[in-house]
Amino acid sequence: MQFEVRALDPQRRVVFLSLDAPDASAAAAKAQAQGLAVLSARQRARLPALGRFFEQRFPLLQFTQELVALLRAGLSLPETLEVMVEKETRAEVRQVFEQMRNALYEGRSFSQALQACERSFPELYIATVRASERTGDLSESLVRYIDYQERLDLVRKKIVSASIYPLVLLGVGGLVTLFLLGYVVPRFSTIYAESGRDLPWLSRLLIDWGRVINEHGGMVAMAAAALVVGGIASARRIAVLAGGLARRVPAIRRRLLVYHLARFYRTMAMLLRGGIPMVPALGMLTTLLPGDLRPALLAATQRIREGVATSQALGDAGLTTPVAARMLRVGERSGDMATMMDRIAAFHDEELARWVDWFTKLFEPLLMALIGVIIGGIVVLMYLPIFELAGSLQ
């Protein structure tokens, strides 16, 4: 649970913290462990499910870029955070900066200051900073993290941009269909009801729908709005369900595996370059993989700890492709596993980008054809009685 803690820092200034804790007393204890005098601790009001879409996230990449720029300009770490506190206008982000600055003034390391704000900083980020504190190359480590994050975002943006056009097609097609069913069909239904003619079965079904819209339009609109709001509120659950169904398709399941492995190898490369040993780095990546691959990663980590070669352990656990397994063996011979894992990730990213491009080129015409069939079917069913009437007059 999230608790909002109001406390006094060593300089007797009032600070506000947002802490994860099982109860209010545990949240207060966490704040006291940071050298703060707790004034109050209360459970944070839960946002409704719909509000999560508008919840403000900590700008991690922007923060890291600004941090590197200020450090390279010659500012010390506390001075850098002082600058960020002064320029920040968003209350929640400013609170995070103040909390880190106060931790540094108390004599804690930068990684410990980040650990105190664990909701804003992922474990990989904290581990990267902790490793850089041993080697003294904080700026270089943060630059590597920026490059890592930008490469991940590039793959994500390619997938998102490829899905925009199909989503626009679905949206426009859905709006046109709703317009036909909610406005045009009800008006045709009154015309056909007054004519008293026998209609084809499918046309009668469509006219019955139009009659329902005419008689209960308000209730139907309220039900449709409730359905839309419920779909938005449970979007994450629907996405998980859709992902589970997609994994049952062999071609999609293989591509999803390639996507997760590309992220896995790119993150491993970043951690190894940061000076983190292989086994601890693998332990940090458990949450990066989906649930069905985590047991395989744990088993591979245990085998590597026992002395088995990385390529063999990952290959036996199903965490390699034929290309990745061969490149890992080359990396083991050369002794530069970080570079080789980075190349594996780049290879799989390019492979995934080619597949996404091919899939969208195939899927978009099929989707347009499906929308055309639906809209055309509604129009034909509306006009079919008129065609029959014209035929009888001839």
Would you write up a description of this structure?
By secondary structure, this protein is mostly helical. It has a domain at 1-46. 74% of the residues lie in helices and 5% in strands. The chain is built from 16 helices and 3 strands. The protein has helices at 24-33, 60-72, 77-87, 91-105, 110-115, 123-135, 138-195, 201-215, 217-233, 235-246, 250-273, 278-284, 294-305, 310-316, 322-334, 337-393; strands spanning 2-8, 14-20, 37-43. The chain has a 3-stranded antiparallel sheet. Strand 1 (2-8) and strand 2 form a beta hairpin. Helix 8 (201-215) crosses helix 16. The longest helix is centred in the middle third of the chain and has 58 residues, at 138-195.
Offer a few descriptive terms.
three-stranded antiparallel β-sheet; 394 residues; single chain; extended; 16 helices; mainly alpha
Nearest-integer average pLDDT: 77
What form results from the Cα inertia axes? extended
Q: What is the terminal separation in angstroms? A: 76 Å
Helical segment tally? 16
Structural class: mainly alpha
Residue share in helices?
over 70%
Largest beta-sheet characterization: 3 strands, antiparallel
Number of strands: 3
What's the order of the H and E elements?
A: EEHEHHHHHHHHHHHHHHH
Q: Ranges with pLDDT <50 over ≥5 residues?
A: 46-55
Question: What fraction of the residues are assigned to beta strands by DSSP?
Answer: 5-15%
